[in-house]
Each structure stands twice: as structure tokens, then as C-alpha cells.
């Protein structure tokens, strides 16, 4: 998309709500009986407005106020069965409540990145503490943990919060980039030069988290990126990337006609490739309305 298309207030005006083409879905895959993934898409206004989620008890409120920010997140539970599902559910709920009630971070985003980084990290760390607390209350939930990949758009900027190995990709000018770094033991060894990326992908350490929400160690990483017209964001759990190559993701995002269409096509490809894990993905872009 030509970044000069929007003209009402210049090429970098903030998209209207109806100009945000976004869609998310989650699927248990072909092997696992339970789905331990959860996701959320919402607009952050003076009230929180849920666009779509796998958590049915989260209800939308009035969409009247101006949008301050746009929030998407994917959480992939760890721990097996009820532990994994509870961990990802708790993380999505807790982070949502944090953003709903802690509005200072949105105003800080307009002035001071450092303060905003700290607010995002605080949300992740408070969620980490909440998972540990629940495990202490009920021994059945001890050891539960989850990944958390969160995209917060505050036009014309966006912030990525990363814990674990769910991913965020960006497609810009036809080129795909993985923005997040996998927090796995394999990636740690790659960074140290102990093994190559190809070697790392073929070891079980590729699925052993070095950082998670609720786990032994959590190291939230916040990255700032520019948000603009024509850029496509993809958040996903590793159930997608285990079976769909970066090249295929790039080609599908390049030719997408809508966020829903490309999400459904990527899910179909992941299932056709084996579907050995839960699959969750969100795709979003700003599309200028005609006229």
C-alpha cells in the first residue's frame, strides 16, 4: 500500500477504527485434545473495547470514545492440560485488566518511551507474580507458565512486549522480518555461538523456554517500532511456525486480500503440515478507506 494514500490529515494520520483490518483465530491442531493458547484483540479507549477474543467472558463496552491505542496479544500455555490453558488464560486476563485500569502508560507513550517501556514490563511482571500466587494457592496449578507476545499500537508508534517463543513478524515493502527473539535455550546457545540456527531448530532445546510468564525466569523485552500504512503485523504461537516457513508466511502476507482470509489460509497450511500443536495467530494492517 502506498503510504501517501491517506490524505485527510497527511500521509501519517491515525487510522480510523474501521480502517484497521484485523483478525485472529485459535485452533487446537490435529494432535492435542486441548487448546492451551489464548489471544486478544481490542481497542484501548477511555474504556476497553474487545474486538475479538477466545475468552467468552470478556465483554465489549461502549465504542464511543476516541481510540488511544490498539492492543493485540497471543499467549501459549506451558505445563500440560489444565495448567497450560489456565496460564495463558490468566495472562491474557491479567494483562487486559492492567491496561484497562493503568492508563498512565498510554499518556506516557506520547512523551517518554522509557517510562512507557517500564509500564509495559511492569504489566508482564505483575502477571508473572499472579501466576506464581495462583500456584501457591492451589498446588494443582504449580508450574504453570505461558508465553506472551503483545503488540500495542499508539500511532505512529508501536511497542512489542515479548516473553517466551511466540512471535511477531512484520511485512513492510514486501519483505518479512521476525521482530521478536525466541526466548529458548536453543536460541541462547545460538547467540553464544555454540550451535548454528539450523542445528538449534532440530533440537528439543528449541522448545525449552529460557523465559516465560510464571516460569523459573521471566525477562520481558520491549521493542519500539514505527507504525505506518502498508505494514502488516503477524502475531503467532509456535504451532504456526513449526509447520509454515517464513517464506510461505511472507508470500501469503504479500498476496492477502483481508486479515481473515490470510489467517484462515495460514491455519489451513499449518494443519496440512501436521498440526502437531495448538495454532494461534493474529494479522493486522491499516487499510485506508475510499473517499
How is this structure best summarized?
With 291 residues, the chain is an alpha+beta fold.
Q: What would you note in describing this structure?
A:
With 291 residues, this protein is an alpha+beta fold. The protein has one domain (17-179, 214-286): PPM-type phosphatase domain (Phosphatase 2c, domain 1), CATH 3.60.40.10. Helices cover 31% and strands 26% of the residues. The protein contains 8 helices and 12 strands. The protein has helices spanning 81-101, 104-109, 113-137, 185-191, 197-201, 238-241, 246-254, 259-272; strands at 20-27, 37-44, 48-53, 69-78, 145-146, 148-154, 157-163, 167-172, 175-178, 221-226, 232-236, 279-286. The strands form 2 sheets. Strands 2, 3, 4, 5, 6, 7 and 10 form a 7-stranded antiparallel sheet that branches. Helix 1 (81-101) packs across helix 3. Mean pLDDT is 87; it is low at 1-5.
